[in-house]
Amino acid sequence: MHKAYQSTLPSSNRLLKKKWDDKYFDEHRILVRDARPSIDTRPPRTYMHLHMKLKKLQLQEERTATIERDNRILLEKMSNTMRTTGQIDNRNYYEARSLNQEKRRRELLRVSKENGTMAKRIVDRKPILARENWQRSSQQNNVYLNNIAKYEVNWYERKSASAQKQHKDEEEEEENSKAQEPAEKSKSQEPVGKSKSQEKGDKSKSKEQTDKSKSKEAADSPPAEEKKGLGNLVKSTPTISTKGENDKKK
């Protein structure tokens, strides 16, 4: 009895219940076996062009080919020099010639010819718009404008010019008045009495003037009175020199 199938759920027939449970379990195992994971844990794919760089290999092969070619040429030259006495091949008899020189020359001639014809057409072309007609129409429009205008032409410029002129006149009057004020003040502030040195200088100047007037009168007087005048002059001359020297010393 203990070896009989014990179902988890009650059933009327244990054999059928066992058969059905086995079938469900097999289906479950198949589903578990074929189930795919939600997270991809497989290793990444390997790409051929990342591991084997064909372009790099091609460049290396080309470089090795050029090196081998150069080495072969150099070896041939060395063998040639060893077999023979050797020659110098540094002469260059090549003459530089341009393959498209004639074409460029023809193109230049064509372009220069077209430019010449275009310049000639531009120079020979007569103007369509007349400048004189524009000037006459402008003058006529100005006449009409003056006829219908309320104020004169450029009245604001004249007004500004007159205002500027008036302003300049006022500034000049102010400057003149300012220049006259210090002169008047200096006159009013002059001292009434003179110093002793000024008085002495004035006296010496007056004496010199009197002596000069006397000498002139003596020169103009008749010959009878010349002796008296000469005596006066002789007496007066030393006084003049001494007074002048005294003034210089002071």
Description:
The structure is a single chain. The protein is mainly alpha-helical. The protein has eight helices and no strands. The chain has helices spanning 14-34, 48-51, 54-83, 101-124, 131-148, 155-188, 196-220, 226-249. Mean pLDDT is 77; it is low at 222-243.
In short:
The protein has 250 residues and is mainly α.
Annotation keywords:
250 residues, mainly alpha, 0% strand
Q: Give the helix level as a range of percent.
A: over 70%
Order of helices and strands: HHHHHHHH
* Mean pLDDT score: 77
CA-based gyration radius: 67 Å
List the total number of helices.
8
Structural class: mainly alpha
Give the strand content. under 5%
Global outline: elongated
Number of strands: 0
Largest sheet: none
- List segments where confidence is low: pLDDT < 50 over at least 5 consecutive residues: 222-243
Give the distance, in angstroms, between the N- and C-terminal Cα atoms. 170 Å
Secondary structure elements and pairings:
Blueprint (H helix, E strand, L loop, with lengths): L13 H21 L13 H4 L2 H30 L17 H24 L6 H18 L6 H34 L7 H25 L5 H24 L1
